[in-house]
Amino acid sequence: MSDKRQDYISWDEYFMGVAMLSAMRSKDPHTQVGACIVSDDHKILSMGYNGFPMGCSDDDFPWCREGEPYDNKYFYTTHSELNAILNYRGGSLEGATLYVSLFPCNECAKAIIQSGIRRIVYDQDKYEHTPAVMASKRMLRAAGVEFYKYEHTGREITISL
Ligand SMILES: Nc1nc(=O)n([C@H]2C[C@H](O)[C@@H](COP(=O)(O)O)O2)cc1CO
Ligand SMILES: [Zn+2]
After folding, report:
1. Which residues are in the CMP/dCMP-type deaminase domain (predicted)?
2. Which residues line ligand 1 (CB under 6 A)?
3. 81 is annotated as an active-site residue
4. Is 71 helix (H, G, I), strand (E, B) or coil?
5. Element (H, E) at 120
6. pTM metric for this prediction
7. Could you tell me if 84 and 48 are in contact, meaning their C-beta atoms sit under 8 angstroms apart?
8. Residue 2 — pLDDT band, cuts 50, 70, 90?
9. Strands across the sheet with 34-38, in order?
């Protein structure tokens, strides 16, 4: 019998890779975020990326960051993490792990905690000094949801589509 391949991707590379691939579906011109929710036996339960809710056209709603709240994207975008939680149709997310390409905000932290997700693996944390992320970490710590920074391996993956 031949030996097995040695250069297969790790679980963390696989799930963070899926989160990053999901982010590529986002129409947000400034920040694209992807999320992947995984069971403790390594099964992908759900995925999501940031975008407008169903029925709210990507072409009609605003993508800008400035201007009145009614006229910019922030009232309308669903974050990747919330989309991944809401996309799940299978029952409970109790004990699951969330892989996400950007640290969750306070609103997503509430949904993460209430859904039963127990662990977060995140990549970027570019808004770490904002009240939203500081409040998020405060709630996650209080609720006992663990969070770890994804450790980049340096592996580059090219997929021809
Ligand atoms: N964790 C997150 N998940 C997300 O899906 N988002 C989304 C909401 C917006 O569509 C975009 C952030 O826009 P900007 O302020 O960087 O131009 O990313 C934002 C965060 C940040 O907390
Ligand atoms: Zn959020």
Report:
1. 10-147
2. 28, 30-31, 33, 50, 65, 73, 77, 79-81, 102-105, 108, 127
3. yes
4. helix
5. strand 119-124
6. 0.97
7. yes
8. confident
9. 44-49, 34-38, 97-102, 119-124, 146-149
